[in-house]
Amino acid sequence: MSDQSAENVADAMSVLKDALVAGRTSLGIELGSTRIKACLVLTDDPTQVVATGSHEWENQFVDRTWTYSLEDVWSGVQAAYSALSASIRESFGVTVESFDAIGISAMMHGYLAFDAEDRLLTPFRTWRNTSTGQAATELTDLFGVNIPLRWSIAHLHQAVRDEEAHVAEVRTLTTLAGYVHWRLTGSKVLGVGDASGVFPIDPATKTYDAKLRESYDSLVADRHPGFRLSEVLPSVLVAGEQAGNLTSEGAALLDPAGVLRAGIAFCPPEGDAGTGMVATCAVAPRTGNVSAGTSIFSMVVLERSLTQVHDELDVVTTPAGDPVAMVHCNNGASELSAWVRLFADFASVSGQKLDADAVFETLFTQALSGETDAGGLLAYNHLSGEPIAGLSEGRPMVVRTPDSTLSLPNFMRAQIYGVFATLALGMRVLAEEGVKIDAMYAHGGLFKTAGVAQRMLAGAIDAPVAVAETAGEGGAWGIAVLAAYTVKADGRELGDYLSGAVFGDSAFAVVEPSVDDVSGFARYLERYRAGLAAERAAVEALA
Question: Can you name the CATH fold of 57-91+101-255?
């Protein structure tokens, strides 16, 4: 390194250190399905990631319910924050005491119900559970709006239908992000994007649809006289509004070391779909994003209302409250990752020591030379139920006909296609609605190997797919940006703030769909759709 370069690095580190000492930073914490991540950015320039920290965790399947314990929630949040603090001390020699703002994000939907004493009434039921079919169908018919199985109101109403004793005691119903925010600030609120996965939002008021809320109260009046949704649901806020401050109890909960000071402002807690949109600058009409992790979902900002109700599509909102068509699939890249781990194990026992990134890159690169329709191979990634595919439970499978071509390139292409296939079923419904997409922005570890999954997604949805350099930190970075926006909005709309203050100088790698990839994936999807009958048979046969 030249003397000038070393001096520039020293100057940059000095600027960051001064910002840390002065608290001119914004913190985002996101509770994802497999990792809790903390991301710290400069408030004045959120593209500058100062430090990160993370903690791995995993859901549990207990009594046929996907859940996380609240003890694991807090031990995980504390571990991620501790790792962030340790990184700051190691890099800058600073112990941080305060920030400009904090934001909390987490997996959307699910069911966290508390009584009048704020006691949890039943273990946390996550978005991954598919036991709410009867409730979802009844509510969809009642509201004239698609209510997916994972939505919080579907979980509540299924508990009502099943006559669960705890329903009479429910005084607070919230999401994971809303719960963590509540415990840290004392405020029972949700960002509108997260709230839109709890109960339908009225785009005019940017809060729960009052007529539909009254319809629900009437529906359950005989079984629960006096029940009012308005009394149990958190208040709704839009991006840019302040959503409370860190209390002394919250500071001790987040930082048991006792260094963090109370009083820090919070932005509204948001869902991972909304923070994914922010992290990819996909909040304007005719844009959207795809987020790939344990689950995979797309969000497309609408120019107009959908013409009819579709089971494959649910209408949620951006963090600013604008309508979005969402295609949500419970199963994402987990099965693909399991196969990659298997190949990594083979490499290890063969004496080839490769780190995880190298294994992913090697296998993904192989997929590029596979046949565009994966040579007749099919990969089903369903570890859990998948409503869009008509599956109550999951049975991961690889299926091929005798005349297919089994090769490593075809196998890997089939696995990547398998991640996108159920999503593509929903995206085709959106296309039939006449919804136009100028660009889709993708984020998640699946897109880390440049030009592979991105190219195949472009072929799957027949639209340009862009990946931004700043999207690497994902939703944790997105909620940190929303925290900074709370301080720096200055009357600007969220889209204007993102395009001007955050993404103005960002580089996007854009891949256009190729004719061969589009036609090849279409052939794959046709076989995939037909083969779902084998998936359903496997669910029935293999208990």
Answer: Nucleotidyltransferase; domain 5 (3.30.420)
